[in-house]
Structure formats: structure tokens, C-alpha cells
């Protein structure tokens, strides 16, 4: 599912895209899981499939997401949950891995989106950037039901996120890089992503207007393209050629 052989970072992007779209990969195999997602996609992800696939194709590797929801019925077949007769709410959320070049461009664009909270961290934890309170969780899902207090099942917790990043980065190695010989180009590509990429979460606090997160991400990607700086430029420059990495 994840590639018998990887020749470039774009081969990794393709695996993520196939997981989202349900299309078969280059080996003719359907990608039904990723190291961070054991199951097939949740129903609500279908609302974002095309947008997610488009940014994964360009190297923004998403591992969690949810659409904005403003007062939908708790019985809604796609986004509903909880007791009957209630109303549910969600803030748009994206969690993804990205290259150093994308991260730098993202930090520049984020100033234009004050309603978006962000948390960005590298594998080592030496870079930890956020515009959130260091300890205060952000509610991203809640529901209002008859005769009950407001129920808040999902938060983005900055402390938990910083702990989770250790496992999130580790899975690149234990579940994916380990499939290949340590001397192979495939192993090096996955290890390079593991060691140089950033883990990012974005929360759009304006759940009434809608979801600006894809607009934000695409603005970053388009700006990088106009500057003739591909998403993977920083990473590919330090990757060896297939011949130089052969044992």
C-alpha cells in the first residue's frame, strides 16, 4: 500500500492522496490505512476529500481534519452525534506534516488570518511555535442537547499535542521506513521526512463563516510556486540520487 519502492518525496505524497480518494496506488493496490490512521476515512471527511487530496498531492500531508459545522442537527447522517433533538458545532481543523520551506512560508501567511490558531513543532521539539496559550485547550467540537449542559467531546490541547508529536514522528520510522532496507533510497526518503518535516495543527475559530484553512494552505502553496520554490525543494536538495544511495 505504501510503496514497494519510493524514488522521491512525491511518491509519499501519492500514497496520502490515494488514501483520501480511494484510488489505487501505482502498484494497483487500494490504500486503506496510514501509520496514523488504522481505519478508512470517517464519513465527515467526505465533505473535505477533494480539498484534502489537492493539498496532499502538493506535499501537505494531512493526518487529521474536520469541517466547520454550525448548528447542524445531532441526527445529521454525516456530522451528527449525541442525543436526538440536539445541535452540533465544530471548528474547522487540520493537522499535517509539512516541509521546512512550507513552514517558513506558512508563518508569513498566518499573519493575514488572525482567526486561526496554530501550533507548529519539529521532531526534536526545539522549534515550538504557537499563537495559543501554552496550557489552555481550545474547544473544536461541542453539542447542545435538550435538558443537558453543553457537551464538549473534542479539544485541541497544546500540552497533549506536544506529547503526541513524539509518537506522530516515531510512526514514520516504526511503521513505514522499517519496511525497507536501511541503505535504500526508500528508507532514506521516509527518514528524511521524519527528521526534517514539521507537525502542524490549525484551528479556524470562525465556525459561522466557514472554513478558511484550505484557502490559507493554498495561498502558501501558490506563493511558493510563484517564487519557483517547490514544496520539497529544501528536502530534495539534500536527498541523494538513487545511484549514490545504493549499497
Architecture overview:
- This protein is α+β, with helices and mostly antiparallel strands and 247 residues long.
- It has helices spanning 9-21, 49-57, 100-109, 158-176, 185-196, 213-226, 233-237, 242-245, and strands at 61-66, 69-73, 87-90, 92-98, 116-122, 128-130, 138-144, 151-156, 198-204.
- A hairpin with a 6-residue loop joins strand 7 (138-144) and strand 8.
- It has eight helices and nine strands.
- Helix content is 35%, strand content 21%.
- The model is unreliable at 229-234 and 240-247 (pLDDT under 50).
- The strands form two sheets. Strands 1-4-9-5-6 form a five-stranded antiparallel β-sheet, sandwiched between helices. It has a four-stranded antiparallel β-sheet with strand order 2-3-7-8.
- The longest helix has 19 residues, at 158-176.
- Helix 1 runs antiparallel to helix 2 and helix 4 runs antiparallel to helix 5 (185-196).
Main sheet specs: 5 strands, antiparallel
| Separate helix tally | 8
Strand content: 15-25%
The spatial strand order of the largest sheet comes to 1-4-9-5-6
End-to-end Cα distance, whole Å, is 25 Å
CA radius of gyration is 19 Å
Compute the number of strand runs.
9
Low-confidence stretches: 229-234, 240-247
In percent, how helical is the residue content? Answer: 25-40%
Globally, the shape reads: globular
Structural class determined from secondary elements: alpha+beta
Strand and helix order: HHEEEEHEEEEHHEHHH
Mean pLDDT: 92
Region (Disordered): 225-247
Domain MTHFR SAM-binding regulatory: 1-222
Biased composition (Polar residues): 226-240
InterPro entries: MTHFR_C
Amino acid at each position: 500500500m505504501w510503496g514497494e519502492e519510493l524514488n522521491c518525496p512525491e511518491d509519499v505524497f501519492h500514497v496520502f492522496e490515494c488514501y483520501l480518494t480511494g484510488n489505487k496506488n501505482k502498484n494497483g493496490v487500494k490504500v486503506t490505512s496510514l501509520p496514523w490512521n488504522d481505519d478508512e476515512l470517517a464519513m465527515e471527511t467526505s465533505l473535505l476529500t477533494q480539498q484534502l487530496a489537492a493539498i496532499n498531492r502538493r506535499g501537505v500531508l494531512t493526518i487529521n481534519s474536520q469541517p466547520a459545522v454550525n448548528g447542524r442537527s445531532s441526527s445529521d447522517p454525516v456530522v451528527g452525534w449525541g442525543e436526538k433533538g440536539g445541535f452540533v458545532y465544530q471548528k474547522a481543523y487540520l493537522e499535517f506534516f509539512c516541509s521546512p520551506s512550507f513552514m517558513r512560508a506558512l508563518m508569513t501567511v498566518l499573519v493575514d488570518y488572525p482567526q486561526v490558531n496554530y501550533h507548529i513543532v519539529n521532531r526534536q521539539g526545539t522549534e515550538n511555535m504557537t499563537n495559543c496559550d501554552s496550557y489552555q485547550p481550545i474547544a473544536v467540537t461541542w453539542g447542545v442537547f435538550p435538558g443537558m449542559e453543553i457537551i464538549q467531546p473534542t479539544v485541541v490541547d497544546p500540552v497533549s499535542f506536544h506529547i503526541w508529536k513524539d509518537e506522530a514522528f516515531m510512526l514514520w520510522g516504526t511503521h513505514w521506513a522499517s519496511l525497507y532496507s536501511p541503505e535504500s533510497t526508500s528508507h532514506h526518503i521516509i527518514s528524511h521526512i521524519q527528521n526534517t518535516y514539521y507537525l502542524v495543527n490549525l484551528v479556524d475559530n470562525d465556525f459561522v463563516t466557514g472554513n478558511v484553512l484550505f484557502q490559507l494552505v493554498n495561498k502558501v502553496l501558490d506563493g511558493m510556486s510563484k517564487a519557483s520554490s517547490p514544496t520539497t525543494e529544501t528536502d530534495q536538495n539534500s536527498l541523494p540520487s538513487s545511484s549514490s544511495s545504493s549499497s
